Amino acid sequence: MSTRDLSRTRVKICGITRLVDVDAAVNAGADALGFVFYAPSPRAVTVEQASPLVMATAPFVSTVGLFVDADAEYVRTVLTELPLSLLQFHGEEDNAFCASFGKPWIKALRVRPEDDVAARMLAWPDAHGFLLDAWHPSAPGGTGHQFNWQQVPQQSAKPLILAGGLTADNVGLAIRSTKPFAVDVSGGVEYSHGIKDASKINAFMAGVRSL
């Protein structure tokens, strides 16, 4: 069965840094929460900061650790300390590296205008899914920029997660246009970097459920 035949679009709220935002996302019905373990990001958290957030996440809500070209030892340290459900790799990590931690993982691809996304995906055959985000010359994600949704493959053997510039105002159109397995939002539900807005989270979830 194609991942596009699934009846409900999942939602991941990424860049969680506060307990109040864990509660807001879970109460709104988010399927997954993302924690950024990449120090240059304005949404970065340390293991110590993330621990109470991960532990406060409700049962059946996935906890996702985001890494960007991290040392393998650092990834293992985070996994030793935190019960993460899924790993998300946003850098130049190859398939062997991503698959070496014994955890389900997804690979983020930053999409350039000239990219053949389906062809690029072949380099990570063991990925559990792919997150498609906008390319930016100086940031590996979370830029709030949108890429050309026509580049999203019409058929995929792996689940596709759409990211990049999503808000309550455009998420419905995004889902209708690309029919992803899930959508991923960060800046579109924030007051400022890393500080979520409960009303924006609720509006975003309403936009997803309106379809």
What is the count of DSSP helices, taking H or I runs of 4+ residues?
Answer: 7
Give me the CATH superfamily.
Aldolase class I
Helical proportion?
Answer: 25-40%
Number of strands: 10
Q: Order of strands across the biggest sheet?
A: 1-2-3-4-5-6-7-8
The CATH architecture can be given as: Alpha-Beta Barrel
Please give the radius of gyration in angstroms. 16 Å
Could you name the CATH class? Alpha Beta
Structural notes for this entry:
With 211 residues, the chain is α/β, with parallel strands linked by helices. The chain has a single domain (9-209), classed as Aldolase class I (TIM Barrel), CATH 3.20.20. Helices cover 28% and strands 21% of the residues. Strands 1-2-3-4-5-6-7-8 form an 8-stranded parallel barrel. It starts with 9 loop residues before the first strand and ends with a helix. Mean pLDDT is 93; it is low at 1-5.
